[in-house]
Amino acid sequence: MSFIHGKPLTPYSEKQFLRTPKEPKPLKAKKEKPAALEGFEPEYLKWISKQPCIITGLRTGDRWTDPHGHTCFYFVVRAHMKAGRTKGTDATALPVGDFYHKQQHVMGIVSWQREHKLDIPALIAAHRKRYALECAEKARTKEAGK
User: Fold this and answer.
1) What pLDDT, in 10s, does the model give residues 80-137?
2) Vertex 34 angle, CA 78 and 90, to 5°
């Protein structure tokens, strides 16, 4: 005699082989996505990616010898700087070399800032001001071209 789930299996049990399918569950309504994510600034991030590193002054593609003696191409990434206990937003992003960005995550923002003698709030303010000036200049030249 065969057993399934601890119960005897009869040779042609309708209950075992001819089960009716369960009714499908009703679909959940999709949540509305916000029109714009708060603090999301893709144009600023694109601009930041083209800026030189705040530590070395190098840009993406420059040749560089890292502190371990390896010669390679430099790569600038957008590092979102935290303000207190909050997660960094796009507005607080700064251009940092990939090596130093990884170092920031290992050391922690406070130790990393102290190690490289950086004033993060002043750097953020300077980059935001320069970005605003370049955007205004671009708007002026676009208006003059019309």
Assistant:
1) 887 555 567 788 889 999 989 999 889 888 899 999 999 988 999 999 999 999 999 9
2) 15
Residue type, 42: P
Distances (CA, A) of 13 to 16, 19, 22, 71, 72: 5, 10, 19, 74, 71
In a domain, 33, yes or no: no
Domain membership flag for residue 140: yes
Helix (H) or strand (E) holding 5: none
Q: Does residue 36 lie within any of the structural domains?
A: no
Separation CA 64–CA 69 (nearest Å): 9
Tell me whether strands 76-80 and 71-73 are parallel, antiparallel or unpaired.
unpaired
